[in-house]
Amino acid sequence: MVSHGADIRSMEVQNNESMYINFIDFVNREMTTAILGSTRATMEAKHGSKADSETSLSLVRDRIRFYRQLLAEAIRDQLLFPIAEANFGRERALRETPVPEFIPDDREDLVSYGNMIAALYSKGFIDKSQLEEIDPMLRLPKRKKDPAREEE
Questions:
Q1: Per-residue pLDDT reduced to its tens digit, 56-101
Q2: The whole model's pTM is what?
Q3: Which of 10, 76, 81, 112 has the fewest Cβ atoms surrounding its Cβ within 10 A?
């Protein structure tokens, strides 16, 4: 806030602006490293190989898997268990309180599984009878029984 009648003048900055840009870049990298454990998976690298980036991505996936499990345990221990204990008693709550599970969303894995299964199916290594069990791995909906296809 500026009081009425105040005189505001801009001053010319004598510093090099690249210093501020470098500082912002440094802070962004530090935050990314603190959260994901690596900057290579999310930021452009000035130097680095594809293998280095893939290793970094693998580490990020591991960290996400860890956080997913940690969150599931926290939901069970701090939310579901107390409710079950209040309703059914401690012994039953210890035995029967479910542990939530977060379904991973590794789309690259789905693509590689799909390509592998398609190649195996086209070469005759997978039979039509096995497809119903393979569908959940690819997160496909349950197949409907089609009498016309059963005769093939």
A1: 677 777 888 888 889 999 999 999 999 999 999 999 999 999 988 8
A2: 0.45
A3: 10
Residue 121 tokens read as 């199916």
The answer to whether residues 59 and 51 touch, using CB atoms and an 8 Å cutoff, is no
Angle at 43 between CA 38 and CA 44, to 5 degrees: 120
User: Could you tell me the two tokens for 67?
Assistant: 């956080």
Distance CA 22, CA 28 (A): 10
Amino acid 143 reads R
Give the residue from 69, 77, 40 showing the smallest Cα distance to 57.
40
Does residue 56 come out as left (phi exceeding 0), alpha (psi in the -120 to 50 range) or beta?
alpha
Whole-number Å distance between alpha carbons of 84 and 94 = 9
Token duo for residue 29 = 């990298």
Residue type, position 116, single letter: M
Q: Please report the pLDDT score of residue 82 as a whole number.
A: 95
How many residues comprise the chain?
152
70 burial type by CB count under 10 A (0-12 exposed, 13-18 middle, 19+ buried): exposed
Helical (H) or strand (E) element with 43: none
